[in-house]
Write a structure and sequence with these properties.
single chain, 418 residues, alpha/beta, UDP-n-acetylglucosamine1-carboxyvinyl-transferase, Chain, 4-stranded mixed β-sheet, binds uridine-diphosphate-N-acetylglucosamine
């Protein structure tokens, strides 16, 4: 099992290139099924979750080539039906995107109930409600979700919770439905817009993505295309938080600054300097942050995925920070690991109160999920002494070459399997 080792206390300086957005790439790869032809997807991150979804796509009969440069050529013309292998599909959350894509192309699909990070119950009732509204019959038996429809017919769907996954899944299921589908109370995250742009590049007619009402006029058929995925706002945010906390002068390159507004505003409140340019941001910090209050919210609010790295940074800020997690019910489990490093954090339900301390101390800790792993990396960078992060595979699910990228910025970080 890989471990990441960090000798803390080094300032970060230089430039880091941000990879393509995992959370856009996963549905886009799944949506290639809709073309039934060859698609070329560029700017994909070479991370575990992408290898995993590609494995599922290959297992159902897609032909895939994935270059070192992050370009995937994917031909789904030979896929005849979609029964996703159980053990592969239950392991990642994003396998649920095969439901929307499979339902649209084959009117019949089977995928295991999805896994993913352990951050509280994560129902998929809104996805199912959407599929049923379009005319599908959905059954869950022995851990497998089966959806079947004779015809998919456009309709109005109001989401009871703002869900990224449900919005994207319903969009994919509806692109070839008869007539118009309207999704109300839709999520507005940048990757919803990215997936909609990809669907439109394949010939779909999706309007309004990025607002809370999305209209999809069904088309007969989609076709292959070439598409480039947007940069990863969460990876970018993680490096920005790391730079602010460790101190230094870092250019976070290949980003869309508009997608980073909430983290930019919050870092400025902590007293870090953030300068925005066209496609990069520069973070300048002396590493002495002030405590701030944060409430996680759907986009354009503060991203729940950055809550964890941010708490690590605030554990050494001056004064108190109050963090309210309003998206997930149990996204504070990693705090026990931060406490091993000396963090003074009290958790009460969905609220964490962080009292900044002088200095964290390096310790042996364990990544409990993807962003918890990122939080421990930030903690390790600012702690005194050596931090050993076990279960590094969680981090590899979402961060491409993290040791390499941080080493290039001057951090002392390496990986070992001992
Ligand atoms: C996606 C991201 C994840 C991010 C999250 C919120 C991927 C692969 N993952 O997850 O990194 O943390 O958005 O920005 O893109 N909910 C329901 N019923 C549903 C669906 C969701 O109650 O049918 C609830 C969830 O339990 C959660 C909230 O809605 O409390 C938001 O979840 P959602 O936006 O769907 O997250 P994911 O798409 O799973």
């Amino acid at each position: 099992m890989d471990k990441i080792i960090i000798e803390g206390g080094k300032k970060l300086n230089g430039l880091v290139d941000i990879s393509g957005f995992k959370n856009a790439a996963l549905p886009i790869i799944s949506a290639c099924l809709l073309a039934g032809e060859r698609c070329v997807i560029e700017n994909l991150p070479r991370i575990k979750d992408i290898f995993h979804i590609s494995k599922i796509m290959s297992a159902i009969g897609s032909e895939i080539e994935f270059s070192e440069k992050g370009i995937m050529v994917i031909d789904t013309s030979k896929v005849e039906k979609l029964v996703a292998p159980y053990d592969l599909s239950r392991k990642i959350r994003a396998s649920y995107y095969l439901l929307g894509a499979g339902l649209s192309r084959f009117k019949e699909v089977e995928v295991a109930y999805p896994g993913g990070c352990d951050i509280g119950t994560r129902p998929i009732d809104q996805h199912i409600k959407g599929f049923e509204a379009l005319g599908a019959k959905v059954e869950i038996n022995h851990g497998v979700i089966k959806c079947k429809a004779d015809r998919l017919i456009g309709t109005k769907i109001y989401l009871d919770v703002v869900s990224v996954g449900a919005t994207i899944n319903i969009m994919m299921a509806a692109v070839c439905a008869e007539g118009r589908t309207t999704i109300e109370n839709a999520a507005k995250e940048p990757h919803i817009v990215d997936v909609a742009n990809f669907l439109n590049s394949m010939g779909a007619n999706v309007k309004g993505a990025g607002t809370d009402v999305i209209r999809i006029d069904g088309v007969e058929k989609l076709h292959g295309c070439t598409y480039s995925v947007i940069p990863d706002q969460i990876e970018a945010g993680t490096y920005m938080v790391a730079a602010a906390a460790a101190g230094g002068d870092v250019i976070v390159n290949n980003v869309i600054p508009k997608h980073l507004e909430s983290i930019i505003a919050k870092l400025r409140e902590t007293s870090a300097e953030v300068i925005e340019y066209d496609d990069f941001v520069r973070v300048i910090s002396d590493g002495k942050l002030k405590g701030v209050n944060i409430k996680t919210l759907p986009y354009p609010g503060f991203a729940t995925d950055l809550q964890q790295p941010m708490v690590a940074a605030l554990s050494m800020a001056e004064g108190m920070s109050i963090i309210t997690e309003s998206v997930y019910e149990a996204r504070f489990k990693y705090i026990d690991e931060l406490k091993r490093m000396g963090a003074n954090v009290k958790v009460d339900g969905r609220v964490a109160i962080v009292e900044g301390i002088e200095r964290l101390s390096g310790a042996k800790v364990r990544a409990t999920d993807l962003r918890a792993g990122a939080a421990l990396v930030v903690a390790g960078l600012i702690a005194k002494g050596k931090t050993e992060i076990d279960n590094a595979f969680h981090i590899d699910r979402g961060y491409e070459n993290i040791e390499q990228k941080l080493s290039n910025l001057g951090a002392k970080i390496y990986r070992t399997d001992r």
